[in-house]
């Protein structure tokens, strides 16, 4: 099957997408993908085609790549968008560059649109071997997925069944020019060592090494799919409605998970946590064991890369984003007919006509007392205990005062003082949104 025919077959499910975007580095692989699609555009009815070049600014050689990509796109009649990104100075520059790149892609790709990237079969084989040497589990060894969600759209890798040799032959046949990244020859990078030192030796003894490793990755993706199906079955009983749905936090009932074997607990949690955070390696799953086995009156926390898992009230709660930032003192609420925006803590509004002022919103300091009709003066801490309010909520739960009199606690109409009864204080709590790609 020709590259054109293979590409068309692989992209058939996305022919009706509003637009196709090509991630164009200017290297061999993405140059071939761009040329293939531009050529097909002359004979096939395809979605509008655009190219995106991400300039990382990490090396002097890369400064000329945007101009090269512009000439290439101009020659093929494909619009090009050049985006410069800042790469965080961290230990793994490769990972930081990838994260910056995909954050930029996420901003560009619109609803239902597709980002096309040019990874091929040799990349798949390298990925499998690289992750195997790092001790990855089934999910990691499943390799590069052919498609996955990306923001409001999808990222598709239509060349995964093609070898680099095939792409090189196509480029030579059509007289294409491309840039070479000098860092690709640097043996200090683990992937380069595999590509230039290890794989040539593999190929000398096993000429089909890349193909067979890619096939193994496909088997592992199938196995991961079965594990995901099992996780969905195991999670279903745990996904009961939280008694505090207004918190808008991902949560699970704990007991259904405790009824599973440790292996199925980890599998279910991996599946649940995967969209929320980078997952820990096997050695760091001890954090789950500690959280699970803590004393019944404890409130343990398992800290992960992008957030925290809390155990409280017989549930697991995922906190990230604003939930990990201390809320600042609320501003004055001058226009009570409008919502009051709380720094790192959502917003507050009245349902009904607000009580007479002057009104202030504060957070707990300790020692607050509320005069409840029929019950007298009650300590706020005990009232929150009665309603089983999770500990991680209490320091950010908005309190309404008139002068120094506590009138009400947001979202808890049962905890209010003797003021007028024709209003309620509604708090829209912050979400976990931390802009994960």
Tell me what you see in this structure.
By secondary structure, this protein is α+β, with helices and mostly antiparallel strands. The protein has three domains: 3-188, Rossmann fold; 239-319, Uridine Diphospho-n-acetylenolpyruvylglucosamine Reductase, domain 3 (2-Layer Sandwich); 340-428, no CATH class. Helices cover 35% and strands 18% of the residues. The chain has 14 helices and 18 strands. It has helices at residues 3-11, 28-40, 65-76, 93-108, 121-133, 138-141, 164-173, 190-205, 209-235, 255-258, 262-273, 286-293, 380-386, 391-394; strands at residues 20-23, 49-55, 80-84, 114-116, 147-150, 153-156, 251-253, 301-304, 307-312, 315-319, 340-341, 347-352, 359-362, 369-372, 376-379, 399-402, 405-409, 423-428. A six-stranded mixed sheet has the order 3-2-1-4-6-5, with helices on both faces. A four-stranded antiparallel sheet has the order 7-10-9-8. Strands 11-12-18 form a three-stranded antiparallel sheet, with no helix packed on it. The longest helix is centred in the middle third of the chain and has 27 residues, at 209-235. The chain is elongated and about 90 Å long.
């Amino acid at each position: 099957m020709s590259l054109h025919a293979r590409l068309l077959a692989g992209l058939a499910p996305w022919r009706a997408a509003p637009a196709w975007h090509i991630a164009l580095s200017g290297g061999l692989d993405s140059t071939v993908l761009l040329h293939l699609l531009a050529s097909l555009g002359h004979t096939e009815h395809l979605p509008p085609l655009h190219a995106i070049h991400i300039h990382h600014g990490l090396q002097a050689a890369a400064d000329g790549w945007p101009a090269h990509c512009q000439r290439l796109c101009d020659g093929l009649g494909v619009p090009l968008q050049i985006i410069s990104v800042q790469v965080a100075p961290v230990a793994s520059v490769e990972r930081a560059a990838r994260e910056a790149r995909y954050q930029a892609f996420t901003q560009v790709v619109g609803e239902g649109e597709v980002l096309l990237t040019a990874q091929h079969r040799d990349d798949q084989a390298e990925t499998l071997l690289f992750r195997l040497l790092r001790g990855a589990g089934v999910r990691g060894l499943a390799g590069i997925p052919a498609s996955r969600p990306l923001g409001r759209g999808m990222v598709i890798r239509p060349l995964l069944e093609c070898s680099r040799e095939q792409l090189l032959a196509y480029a030579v046949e059509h007289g294409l020019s491309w840039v070479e990244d000098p860092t690709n020859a640097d043996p200090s990078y683990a992937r380069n060592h595999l590509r230039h030192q290890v794989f040539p030796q593999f190929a000398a003894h096993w000429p089909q090494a890349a193909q067979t490793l890619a096939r193994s990755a496909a088997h592992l993706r199938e196995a991961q799919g079965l594990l995901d199906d099992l996780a969905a079955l195991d999670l279903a009983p745990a996904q009961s409605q939280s008694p505090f749905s207004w918190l808008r936090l991902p949560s699970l009932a704990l007991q259904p998970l405790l009824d599973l074997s440790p292996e199925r607990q980890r599998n279910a949690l991996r599946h649940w946590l995967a969209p929320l955070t980078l997952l820990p390696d096997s050695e760091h799953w001890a954090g789950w064991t500690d959280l699970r086995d803590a004393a019944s009156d404890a409130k343990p926390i398992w800290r992960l890369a992008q957030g925290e898992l809390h155990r409280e009230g017989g549930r697991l709660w995922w906190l990230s984003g604003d939930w990990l930032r201390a809320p600042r003192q609320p501003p004055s609420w001058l226009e009570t007919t409008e919502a009051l925006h709380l720094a790192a803590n959502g917003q507050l509004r009245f349902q009904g006509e607000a009580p007479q002022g002057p009104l202030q919103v504060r957070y707990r300091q300790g020692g607050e007392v509320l005069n409840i009709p029929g019950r007298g003066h009650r300590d706020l801490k005990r009232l929150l205990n009665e309603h089983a309010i999770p500990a991680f909520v209490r320091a950010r739960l908005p309190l309404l005062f008139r002068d120094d009199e506590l009138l009400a606690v947001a979202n808890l109409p049962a905890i209010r003082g003797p003021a007028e009864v024709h209003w309620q204080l509604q708090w829209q709590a912050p979400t976990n949104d931390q802009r994960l790609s």
